[in-house]
Amino acid sequence: MTDETEATDGGSDTAAGADDLALDPWGSSTVSDYRKLFEEFGIEEFEEVLPGVPDPHYLMRRGVIFGHREYDRVARAMANDEPFAALSGFMPTGDPHIGHKLVFDELIWHQEQGGDTYGLIADLEAHSARGISWEEIDEHARNYLLSLIALGFDPEEGELYRQADNTEVRDLAFELGSKANFSEFQAIYGFGGDTSISHMQSVVTQMADILYPQLAEPKPTVIPVGPDQDPHVRFARDLAARLRYFGITEAFASFEVDPDERGLLSRAYEALSRDGSADDGSDEPPRCEDAADWLETNQQESPVRESVVGKLRAAGKEPLRPRVRFLDRNATDEAFEALIEAVEGDKRVFDEHVDSFDLSRPEAEELAREIEIDHGGYGFMLPSSIYHRFMTGLTGGKMSSSIPASHISLLDDPEEGYEKVKAATTGGRETAELQRELGGEADDCPVYELYAYLLAGDDDEFATRVYDECVGGERLCGGCKEQAAELMREFLTEHQEKREEAEEILEDLDVELEAERRGVPGDEH
């Protein structure tokens, strides 16, 4: 299990990412090589957790959902029928299109698996970051909610809200803002002196959105997003850890070490414990000075080694003993005293931490969260996330709301959707003869993506057959596009009929569809 205090994915040091791969939540990010996300941002490959996901969604099975952060927590909760949640938001800057349907489907699937599910309209973000007027926001918000409900979201079992109307989210954003500073906004988002305060407020509001499902009860929570939203996820994980009363780490002595130093200490301890370090052959634990000698003999010289050796020399004959450490981060005096009382067995109490020699790491995390909640804290778990691939635009390149021919709106007339697919770029060869000889390039084909992401639905056999026929030269682009266009027309017809049915459901919900706000329309920031 990831260290909830020490390994929260960055903060100001790493959240901005590497120079050659920037993720901009408000830009036009595309990712040409998804492998870089694993290397440079610590996103993990989804296929590693896929075997533990009960009845996985077809987007998971087909690799469209390619990455995650700690989704194994959510999968375990799902498999064990334990509480979990899913939340994602939609910035109402235009009509919902088939790219947005990926997130709609992910939310709906998690709801069907028993999760507490939340869909939000990021209206504060749209107004502050994109300068969208409140009148436009109202119109687009309604369309997003109608499509989400039409696709299967059950608002009676889940929750839909607008940022501007959720006082609990705004109150939580205020608390989170006390743990953030401007230098982080600069490092993570590139904000500068000309960035409006409202834009910065919208960011901490998004952090509050991400943690909102845990206000009533801490639980594993997944945020399904595109990889361009990863900076928000990492920042939210950092802020969630900063609000915790106690940090939980593993230690070997009374002094503090960072994760790299802890790794060296662990190696030294395991080697000395295996070989025996006491001169008289007794079972006494190794001493800090013994570990310093071992590291100087067996580990290459480095700043980390020298740092650890210095701390070990200063500790002298203090025994090295594995322990779980409770670090006092934000605890009240009463909460800290309650923790001391609650830690049973062999322990040592210091001014700012408590060491337990009997508790396991999971037991310590559960106890710390229990004490925190009992004394008025949040007890947040670090939110998890899953990441889906961007859909290629029908004209090639990025699918963009500002380029009508590149995407299919969920509001498009079915005949218009048919024509857009018929006019789409393909991964076909220059001639039918070459296509039969060499096969098509399905992996670079926007039309095949339509099958894999949407048109084949839950039918993996159909999606595989289309792929194999294409790369095998049996399927030509004309017939393939005709079939896809007809399926798209059918989908849009059915979806828009269900949108009409959703109108009545939406009217009965406690969601404000018309913002009563004064002031000038937003400007671009």
From TrEMBL:
<keyword id="KW-0067">ATP-binding</keyword>
<feature type="short sequence motif" description="'KMSKS' region">
    <location>
        <begin position="398"/>
        <end position="402"/>
    </location>
</feature>
<keyword id="KW-0030">Aminoacyl-tRNA synthetase</keyword>
<keyword id="KW-0547">Nucleotide-binding</keyword>
<protein>
    <recommendedName>
        <fullName>Tryptophan--tRNA ligase</fullName>
        <ecNumber>6.1.1.2</ecNumber>
    </recommendedName>
</protein>
<dbReference type="InterPro" id="IPR002305">
    <property type="entry name" value="aa-tRNA-synth_Ic"/>
</dbReference>
<dbReference type="InterPro" id="IPR002306">
    <property type="entry name" value="Trp-tRNA-ligase"/>
</dbReference>
<keyword id="KW-0963">Cytoplasm</keyword>
<feature type="region of interest" description="Disordered">
    <location>
        <begin position="1"/>
        <end position="22"/>
    </location>
</feature>
<dbReference type="GO" id="GO:0006436">
    <property type="term" value="P:tryptophanyl-tRNA aminoacylation"/>
</dbReference>
<keyword id="KW-0436">Ligase</keyword>
<dbReference type="InterPro" id="IPR014729">
    <property type="entry name" value="Rossmann-like_a/b/a_fold"/>
</dbReference>
<dbReference type="Pfam" id="PF00579">
    <property type="entry name" value="tRNA-synt_1b"/>
</dbReference>
<comment type="similarity">
    <text>Belongs to the class-I aminoacyl-tRNA synthetase family.</text>
</comment>
<feature type="coiled-coil region">
    <location>
        <begin position="481"/>
        <end position="519"/>
    </location>
</feature>
<feature type="compositionally biased region" description="Low complexity">
    <location>
        <begin position="8"/>
        <end position="22"/>
    </location>
</feature>
<feature type="short sequence motif" description="'HIGH' region">
    <location>
        <begin position="92"/>
        <end position="100"/>
    </location>
</feature>
<dbReference type="GO" id="GO:0005524">
    <property type="term" value="F:ATP binding"/>
</dbReference>
<dbReference type="InterPro" id="IPR020653">
    <property type="entry name" value="Tryptophan-tRNA-ligase_arc"/>
</dbReference>
<keyword id="KW-0175">Coiled coil</keyword>
<dbReference type="GO" id="GO:0005737">
    <property type="term" value="C:cytoplasm"/>
</dbReference>
<dbReference type="GO" id="GO:0004830">
    <property type="term" value="F:tryptophan-tRNA ligase activity"/>
</dbReference>
<keyword id="KW-0648">Protein biosynthesis</keyword>
<comment type="function">
    <text>Catalyzes the attachment of tryptophan to tRNA(Trp).</text>
</comment>
